[in-house]
Amino acid sequence: MARTTGKVHVVRVTKSGYVDRQGRRRDYSSAYLRRTYREDGKVKNETVANLSALPAHVIDLIDAGLKGTALVPAGEALTITRSVPHGHVAAVWAMAGKLGMPGLLGPACRERDLAAALIVSRVVAPGSKLSTLTWWADTSLGRDLGLTGVSTDQVYAAMDWLAGRQDAIEAKLAARHLGAEANPGRMALFDLSSSWLEGSHCPLAARGYSRDGKKGRAQIEYGLLTDPAGRPVAVRVFPGNTGDPAAFTEIVKVTRDKFGLASMIMVGDRGMITSARIEALNTAADGTTLEGEDAYGWITALRAPAIRKLMADDGPLQLSLLDQQDLAEITSPDYPGERLVACRNPVLAAERARKREDLLSATEKLIAPLIARVAAGRLTGADQIGVEVGKVIGKYKTAKHFDVTITDTSLAVTRKQAQIEEEAALDGFYVLRTPVPASQLDAPGVVTAYKNLKHVERDFRHIKSDDLDLRPVFHRLEERVKAHVLICMLACYLTWHLRKAWAPLTFTDEQPPQPANPVAPARRSPAAQAKASRQHDEHGHPCHSFRSLLSHLATLTRNDVRFAGTTATVLILADPTSTQRQAFDLIGTAIPMTLK
User: Fold this and answer.
1) Domain segments of the chain: what residues?
2) Quick check: 224 pLDDT over 90?
């Protein structure tokens, strides 16, 4: 029989347990190329070659080839036709779904998909609407939601659709976070901020007090309503010259009339809840006074002149009250039916004293060259001297603390020491006022509620700069400006939950200590301090900022792969890092191949 017939295959033989002369146990492996054939009705084997001397991967290739596998060079086995960032949009989209964001926005439609994509994009890669359109094509978000080829007109139509549903969206959020079940204290926080606009045709644009330090620029103002933990619930946009009290009046109407919430306690700063607004707070449109469950409570703080009045002429607020404690509750006939909670923070007092002295010294340093010029005769004339002094004395907002005497040939600038000492006596002091009875909220609770306004300030930082880049505003139409701010508010709501879920991966303090004294400054926990100093968590994994964590998640790509000899493409994810796996575990979802 011809020996060329039969099948050739690879056989591996392993011999274990062999002991050599030195008593060492050894295992031996051999590989042979054998031919199997039939002769006289019997199956026989013939060793064609000993492959043992070949590298293991070469033996594997021979074995695979004999078994029918078509072998191609490694570089030609597959082709990655496209690779797009996927992990960051997948994580944010998953959190949006977990929070019910699509259903919150409204019924399923093309506009809802675009609006949801705008909110997710604002979290992941904040930018202008035109840059967002380009960015969609470079991520899995655009492909999975069918956003490639979307026009600017379609985006603006989605923004208009979203703006028309603002009241319904916010009413759902209010029921979710301000209702009695989720918020038994029936408390809401409100504060006002501003951002400047580019362009000159927006009807909301006006010049007012800029909280961004952009003097002389037209701006808008927007008020943010949150629950006590700082979750955004509603936002309202106002002309740039709107005062805090007017904004507060508007948000109370929204909360009471549109959200249907009764017996709320509104917390606002001293410039917002004024005496006039307090009087109007529980006055109905027909002039009657609202009482019982329809009445609203409030917590705010007194301004410095009102505090001085309480301290004058042996008034109810005496410094000796706070010698042994940082908090004392007092009453005053000037505030009938109200509780006054006086607080003193010694750390804040020291910081304000230091800052005041630094600013006074800096102002004197600016004025010193002018005094020298006048003394040398290089600057003369009372009018010219006054112009030069006016340029510098108000730079650090300390002009009120200086006496300035100007003649044609002299300039004298001295501190108003008595006035400075009078102001310094109030350093670290603040007085809170509220009609909420002690049986409902004790004095430490009042202080804690007022200090919770820091959560709204944190939301403004996230909205304006840290995460969502709301400013400057480029839209011209009033409804588009309101839609832009609404998108940023909803993105802030999404960011709030992402930051909380991802706290173990970031520098966020997971369990900040609750101070025994509510007046005392907030402290970071030892675990958070350790993360900040080591830049790693207790397991040695690197800590991230929120933004850097999103950047790291973006390295989890989704690849379109085409294998040799085929025309179809297969979606394959890059192997996730341990941090990327943990990020998805913390939001309670597996890493999805597609968003829909």
Assistant:
1) 7-71, 167-345+428-498, 347-424
2) yes
